[in-house]
């Protein structure tokens, strides 16, 4: 009996030990991944596409990053800055810069480089494009008092400042190069990242190889990576199914996931997460009868989001019923509370009866006709557009869809030449400041295509932005959400996108997050076998 | 003949100028521009109007249209296509990168098409209304009805399901590794070549049938000449003229028109570059590609006309 117990104990220990051993990162190999878009330039401070992040981020570090193991993609984690402190008034942030970080040309990185980088982003010289300048409007000054310290001083306290530094676009550049030519990084690559640049064949691929002098000793694990530009999703699926590539990090549709899983079986691992992208419905407040909030509320009340989620998640890259924050992230409204908002009720009959009543009160006749502008992109605009039209038809509205080619789409939106239109936003991190900025009054954000002014909403935004206590901030975010989605129904949320990453089971050390911009430095990724 | 060649070459200038005006105007009429495609299409919220104006000024889009046109024309006169509005890279370099692939694919597809179309077309004509003719007709009509990109998808799926293999994802030049190069390009060449051969086969068959009913062929047969000799020496030379036109024009089309096939096989060719340039409103790149394709068409037409004179001694140009 004693021998049997010892045997069982040994087997149990072995079973516990084996997975631990199996997860020990292994060095070597080449990671191959398709990228559905190609960057116009290499300058992260200027560009806006994930097509830049996936192939270029491995060459750089940022001041801070998100914890590579955090599925919510929101936890700050040291990178070039090994630690940081915040002053008691919440207006001064001091970062300790890591020693021993070298650029790929062999020179040392100091606080001077961090300052020059952020000066370029926050206070760009004339003629230098920084598409994220507006995000750092609260920054008053950036100083580098010594080689290992950088101090950011803000005009006002901020609840989101640390999160804004997690931007994967804010590559740390070399100060001397920026001083000579602030445009140098548009056409050249030279960072401190885990990989050094080998080649970029335009239209074809980018190759990076292991940086032997990387500051995080032992990393990266991969010898090389190869990012292959591949626009067509069928070609991307074929590349994964044919085991020519390990992963595509943006995401696949449910049908594409199933075809990969059916072919590869246990040779593939699927990671899924709510995606920090959402299609919104912009309602033009300057067009009658949409200036009447009863009509706007009727539009949201008509939507059966819960049933829609079940049906659409089988055919499109959407799934979660969401408010202004991605479900499951720190500031998201819990489902039971969200379901109390108009348009989120679980009783759709009651919801639609209310919608019809509101339309009648607003003097909108049965069969009222309007045009819904949609963007000519199949996934997920097409299925969501069809779903919306069907939902509105059920409350007696007669909607005609007008589909516009993607590059021309924003012309009518910016001019206000529409009644109701599909709009979208995607964030690099889930953070109320980033996700709610879209809904500020038009005079504060020209990307608000609803064309309204709502000072109460603006005030709530500013209040939550200044609030450094997360719990108090959460309460203000809820007020903002209620006003935006229910009381005024300025904008409608459809369904949160759902990110599906089927990847080779050989690929380890990568965690899916709600953002397809995060976790792409590839320093933690390794290949088993 | 010399005067004719010179006249034809000079006539290309106004044609190209017309194409230039047309594409320049058409691109400006279409809503949206490269700056909107770069920033707004990504859903950017923090991009200010100032930044967009600054980017437009940097690209010269704030200048009057006539100035933009004249500076483009001045560049073209120096054979300088300028830089891409999207990448900022030299257009000639970007085209050069893709040209080798597109040219090789066009040559391979044309060769496959020619090798299929001419013998099959002759065979069908000679064996008119027999099972051979029916088989060739079915084969060629199926080719006409099957889009090459769809055939490409079928090929990839078949290779994937049956052989657990797909072609390489990246282009390797023939002179670097011929085996790897062929592994990638033979499949799109077959997919495109088949459709292309179908047109040629139909044309070859009908032209051959027409020629075979001519008096001089009947006379040759009556004289007891060998059928093979009649076909190759007398019939083919006359029947091949329309086929030559079709094959040449298709070749010119293949250089820039294989958009979907390039997407399916992930080929970094001129067709993909073309579509991406249009989608991004990259005016300079689109203009350069249109001019390139127009020039290729004009040159191919020119050489076909010269070849006509060589193949048919009755044709004389003045």
Can you offer a commentary on this structure?
The complex is a heterodimer of chains A (529) and B (318). In chain A, 31% of the residues lie in helices and 22% in strands. By secondary structure, chain A is of the alpha+beta class. In chain A, strand 12 (368-375), helix 13 and strand 13 (397-404) form a beta-alpha-beta unit. Chain A starts with a helix and ends with a strand. In chain A, 52% of the residues are buried. Residues 9-21 of chain A have low confidence and may be disordered. Chain B has 2 domains: 2-77, no CATH class; 91-311, Orthogonal Bundle (MetI-like fold), CATH 1.10.3720. Chain B is mostly helical. In chain B, 76% of the residues lie in helices and 0% in strands. Chain B is built from 13 helices and no strands. The chains are: A alpha+beta (529), B mainly alpha (318). At the A-B interface, helix 7, helix 14 and strand 14 of A face helix 2, helix 3, helix 5, helix 7 and helix 12 of B.
In short:
The complex is a heterodimer of chains A (529) and B (318). Chain A has 529 residues and is an alpha+beta fold.
List keywords for this structure.
heterodimer; A: 529 residues; alpha+beta; four-stranded mixed sheet; 31% helix; globular; B: 318 residues; mainly alpha; MetI-like fold; 13 helices
């Amino acid at each position: 009996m004693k021998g049997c117990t010892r045997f069982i104990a040994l087997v149990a220990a072995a079973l516990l030990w084996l997975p631990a051993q199996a997860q020990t990162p292994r060095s070597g190999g080449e990671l191959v991944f398709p990228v559905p878009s190609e960057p116009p330039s290499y300058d992260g401070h200027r560009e806006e596409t994930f097509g830049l992040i996936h192939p270029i981020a491995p060459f750089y570090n940022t001041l801070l990053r998100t914890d590579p193991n955090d599925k919510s993609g929101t936890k700050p984690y040291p990178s070039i800055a090994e630690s940081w402190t915040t002053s008691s008034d919440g207006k001064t942030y001091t970062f300790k810069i890591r020693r021993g970080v070298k650029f790929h040309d062999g020179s040392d990185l100091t606080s001077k480089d961090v300052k020059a980088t952020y000066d370029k982003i926050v206070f760009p010289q004339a003629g230098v494009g920084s598409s994220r300048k507006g995000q750092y409007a609260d920054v008053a000054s950036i100083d580098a008092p010594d080689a290992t310290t950088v101090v950011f001083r803000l005009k006002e306290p901020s609840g989101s400042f640390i999160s804004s530094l997690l931007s994967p676009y804010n590559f740390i550049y070399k100060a001397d190069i920026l001083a000579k030519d602030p445009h140098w990084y548009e056409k050249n690559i030279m960072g401190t990242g885990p990989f050094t640049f080998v080649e970029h064949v335009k239209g074809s691929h980018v190759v990076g190889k292991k940086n032997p002098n990387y500051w995080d000793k032992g990393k990266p694990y991969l010898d090389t990576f190869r990012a292959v530009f591949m626009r067509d999703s069928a070609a991307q699926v074929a590349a994964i199914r044919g085991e020519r590539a390990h992963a595509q990090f943006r995401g696949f549709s449910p049908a594409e996931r199933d075809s990969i899983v059916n072919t590869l079986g246990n040779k593939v691992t699927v990671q899924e997460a709510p995606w920090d992208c959402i299609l919104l419905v912009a309602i033009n407040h300057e067009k009658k009868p949409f200036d009447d909030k009863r009509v706007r509320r009727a539009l949201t009340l008509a939507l059966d989001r819960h049933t829609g989620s079940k049906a659409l998640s089988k055919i499109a890259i959407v799934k979660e019923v969401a408010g202004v924050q991605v479900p499951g992230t720190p500031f998201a409204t819990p489902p039971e509370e969200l379901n109390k908002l108009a348009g989120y009720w679980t009783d759709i009959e009651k919801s639609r009866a209310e919608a019809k009543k509101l339309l009648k009160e607003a003097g909108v006749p049965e069969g009222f006709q309007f045009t819904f502008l949609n963007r000519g992109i199949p996934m997920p605009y097409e299925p969501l557009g069809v779903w919306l039209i069907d939902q509105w038809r059920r409350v007696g509205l007669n909607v005609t869809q007008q589909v516009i080619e993607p590059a021309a789409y924003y012309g009518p939106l910016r001019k206000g030449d529409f009644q109701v239109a599909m709009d979208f936003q995607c964030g690099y991190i889930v953070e109320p400041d980033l996700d709610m900025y879209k809904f500020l009054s038009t005079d504060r954000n020209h990307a608000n295509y609803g064309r309204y002014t709502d000072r109460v909403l603006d005030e709530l935004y500013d209040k939550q932005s200044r609030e450094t206590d997360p719990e108090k901030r959460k309460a203000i975010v809820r007020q903002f959400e209620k006003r935006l989605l229910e009381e005024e129904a300025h904008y409608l949320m459809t369904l949160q996108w759902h990110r599906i990453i089927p990847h080779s089971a050989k690929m380890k050390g990568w965690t899916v997050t709600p953002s397809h911009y995060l976790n792409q430095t590839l320093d933690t990724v390794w290949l088993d076998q | 003949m010399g005067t004719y060649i010179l006249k034809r070459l000079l006539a290309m200038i106004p044609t190209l100028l017309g194409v230039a005006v047309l594409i320049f105007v058409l691109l400006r009429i279409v809503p949206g521009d490269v700056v909107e495609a770069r920033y707004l299409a990504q859903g950017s919220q923090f991009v200010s109007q100032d930044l967009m104006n600054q980017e437009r000024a940097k690209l010269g889009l704030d200048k009057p249209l006539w100035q933009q046109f004249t500076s483009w024309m001045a560049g073209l006169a120096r054979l300088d296509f300028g830089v891409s509005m999207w990448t900022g890279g030299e257009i000639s370099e970007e085209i050069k990168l893709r040209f080798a692939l597109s040219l090789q694919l066009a040559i391979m597809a044309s060769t496959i098409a020619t090798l299929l179309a001419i013998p099959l077309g002759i065979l069908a004509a000679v064996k008119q209304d027999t099972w051979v003719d029916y088989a060739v007709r079915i084969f060629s009509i199926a080719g006409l009805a099957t889009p090459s990109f769809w055939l490409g998808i079928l090929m990839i799926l078949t290779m994937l399901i049956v052989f657990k293999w797909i072609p390489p994802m990246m282009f390797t030049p023939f002179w670097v590794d011929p085996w790897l190069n062929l592994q990638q390009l033979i499949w799109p060449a077959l997919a495109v070549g088949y459709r292309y051969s179908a047109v040629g086969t139909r044309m070859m068959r009908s032209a051959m049938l027409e020629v075979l009913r001519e008096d001089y062929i009947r006379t040759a047969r009556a004289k007891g000449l060998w059928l093979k000799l009649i076909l190759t020496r007398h019939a083919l030379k006359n029947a091949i003229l329309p086929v030559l036109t079709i094959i040449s024009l298709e070749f010119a089309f293949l250089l820039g028109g294989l958009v979907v096939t390039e997407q399916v096989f992930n080929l970094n060719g001129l067709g993909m570059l073309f579509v991406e340039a249009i989608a991004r409103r990259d005016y300079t790149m689109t203009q350069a590609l249109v001019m390139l394709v127009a020039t290729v068409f004009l040159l191919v037409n020119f050489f076909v006309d010269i070849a006509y004179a060589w193949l048919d001694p009755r044709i004389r140009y003045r």
